[in-house]
Amino acid sequence: MPDTIALKTADVALAPVKSFDGPNGKKPKRVLSPRNIMLYGTLFVAAAYYLLPLYVMIVTSLKGMPEIRMGNIFSPPMEITFEPWVKAWATACTGLNCDGLSRGFWNSVRITVPSVIVSIAIASVNGYALANWRFKGSELFFSILVIGAFIPYQVMIYPIVIVLREMGIYGTLTGLIIVHSIFGMPILTLLFRNYFASLPQELFKAARVDGAGFWQIFLKIMVPMSLPIFVVAMILQVTGIWNDFLFGVVFTRPEYYPMTVQLNNIVNSVQGVKEYNVNMAATILTGLVPLIVYFVSGRLFVRGIAAGAVKG
Prior knowledge:
Number of helices: 15
Strand content: under 5%
Radius of gyration: 29 Å
Shape: flat
Number of strands: 0
Order of helices and strands: HHHHHHHHHHHHHHH
Largest sheet: none
CATH architecture of the largest domain: Orthogonal Bundle
CATH class of the largest domain: Mainly Alpha
Distance between the termini: 58 Å
Number of domains: 2
Structural class: mainly alpha
């Protein structure tokens, strides 16, 4: 038997090596295959569908009113002017005041920053506790939070008005910050809970064995590993709070109106000539902050959504 194996091995070793005239491997795919044409064609149509309105807004905001009255909304401006942008920011009338969007911008900043910080801080602790520190009634508490994420805002407006009035903070920025923080916590708690549940439990158990407590594990282990989900929560809250109109017009007074409410007052003004270039410039200025936040942190947003919204 060993002699047979040795003979076969020798035959394989002495066998002539076949020569190949061409390159090996799979045949390269054609760039313009029907599949690629359909794929890129669909992507091009979808991109054009979303970018065309933005293009019209930008070119309209850079035109003067005489050129706009010519009626060709798709043509680039023959003479670029930034006067509509200056007027939208500084001098457009938003009701009784004619100071443009500048006051509303700073009101939105004063509303958004503390609301985002408070809601993310509380929701992250809630999600961490629900994922790693099970307590009596935790499942009921989590179910109530999830149900709260799907309650229509309109149902809660009048009760919240009564509560804020009794607390003496109705019509103030503080009251609006509390409202945004409360309504943002259910969905953020769900995201944080799923994300923390997807992290390796061995890290949590090892820290417990080493004597680490609730806050030590959260601040020194969980938070440093959770940058993607914090970015997701920040983008969701910044976008939702900055673009909010309903809460801003219901729970604040005119001097505290956010940017979106002032934009509505500019666009729907019935006095004087309808200045479409100013309206377009004001609309772009209002949506600029969420766009910048998303484009700066978009990659982390996708990572966090994939990990926090699917796992768990």
